[in-house]
Specification:
The complex is a heterodimer of chains A (223) and B (141). Chain A is of the alpha/beta class and 223 residues long. Chain B has a 4-stranded parallel β-sheet, with helices on both faces. In chain B, helix 2 links the parallel strand 3 and strand 4. The chains are: A alpha/beta (223), B alpha/beta (141).
């Protein structure tokens, strides 16, 4: 999932300083799972903003809405009747959701309530970890299902650097060395010989270096 | 404010603090400012509910669960404690201040302690004065 984290309430409050009525839009997809922009977080943020503004003598009117996914135009369209009389739209979606709202409601001021962090998963309830570098050219079949692109601090392709000590990365003793994990896993699978294949430099044009990317499935186009 | 009678909302666990309201049966005196809301477990308290109480004009709010280690549902009171701490952080962050919200632990057979908590919270809120969200109707609902 896309993992995000809410900005400080004061930062969000500063961004809507001139607004009297705002629409807060939560998203039921990734950011709901990582407890940053789901229904509950949307209501809590709305409440906190109202309390702050009322104390300051500038009461804020809030409307809260949830959409199934902010990254699909058909769901964004369900908000058409809710945006007309609001000064600002606050998106509790990831960066994709904010942009979809801004595109759909071109004449409205749309602001992000979240900082979009990474593609990852939960390691325990309340904690999430980055697991995918979104490089566009997956090599997990060569590395025992452990991604060296994002889990190795240097994104090395052919084994650990000299900073790997006792299974930990030199950047932080709490960060496991991805290549140590890869070695241990390949060893347990009896596939260490696979690691002897030298990986050529990666084609980063399939990642962000090739500019904004697009995926097309013409067979599922409706028209 | 001389005649300020705080409105205090107490979210009380069914298995402990709510039963500890036997303070009344024990003829123990505690201020009538505390409005008790029964929860099936203190762990069912929610950030939004606490913030709603603030918005709706409660001068003080407390959550009362079982003694630590004694939760009927094993860990509900620890969860309540963490949520109360989080809401206190939010209230500090937005300038409301966290003093009007507190978490307590009290056992079901300790009516005396419940009365103490009610007194302690009432005195604390009395010294803080009315919530900015409390209207002038004072202690009337």
């Amino acid at each position: 999932m896309i993992v995000a984290e809410q900005k400080p309430i004061k930062t969000i409050a500063d961004l809507i300083e001139d607004s009297n009525k705002v629409l807060l839009v939560g998203c039921s997809a990734c950011v709901a799972v990582c407890l940053a922009g789901g229904e509950k977080e949307t209501e809590v943020l709305a409440s906190a903003l109202r309390i702050k503004r009322k104390q300051e003598g500038k009461p804020l009117e809030t409307v809260t809405k949830m959409v199934t996914r902010q990254c699909d135009p058909e769901y964004i369209a369900t908000l058409d009747d809710s945006v007309e009389d609001v000064d600002t739209i606050i998106s509790l979606g990831c960066g994709v959701g904010v942009q979809y709202l801004a595109e759909r409601f071109y004449n409205k001021w749309v602001i992000p309530a979240l900082d979009t962090k990474f593609a990852g998963g939960s390691i325990e309830h309340g904690q999430w970890e980055e697991r995918c570098g979104l490089c566009g050219d997956c090599i997990l079949h060569r590395t025992g299902g452990i991604c060296p692109i994002i889990r190795c601090s240097k994104s090395l392709l052919n084994g650990p650097c000299g900073g790997s000590q006792d299974g930990k990365c030199e950047i932080n003793k709490d960060v496991p060395c991805a290549w140590h994990l890869i070695y241990e896993r390949m060893k347990s699978l009896g596939k260490l010989d696979k690691l002897l294949e030298i990986q050529p430099p990666k084609d980063w044009s399939r990642s962000r270096d090739g500019g904004p990317r697009k995926v097309t499935r013409e067979d599922v186009f409706i028209d | 404010m001389d005649n300020f009678e705080p409105k205090i909302v107490a979210f009380c666990c069914h298995y402990s603090a709510y039963s500890a309201d036997l303070a009344g049966s024990m003829r123990l005196q505690y201020p009538p400012n505390v409005r008790i809301i029964e929860l099936p477990c203190s762990g069912t308290i929610d950030h939004k509910v606490l913030l709603s109480a603030v918005e709706d004009g409660a001068d003080g709010i407390f959550v009362a669960g079982c003694m630590e280690g004694d939760c009927h549902f094993t860990r509900g009171n620890y969860r309540a404690k963490k949520r109360v701490e989080k809401v206190k952080e939010i209230l500090d962050e937005i300038g409301f201040g966290s003093d009007r919200l507190e978490m307590y632990n009290v056992s079901a057979d300790n009516g005396t302690r419940f009365a103490e908590i009610a007194n302690e919270m009432t005195e604390r809120i009395r010294s803080l004065g009315p919530s900015p969200f409390n209207k002038k109707e004072g202690d009337k609902n």
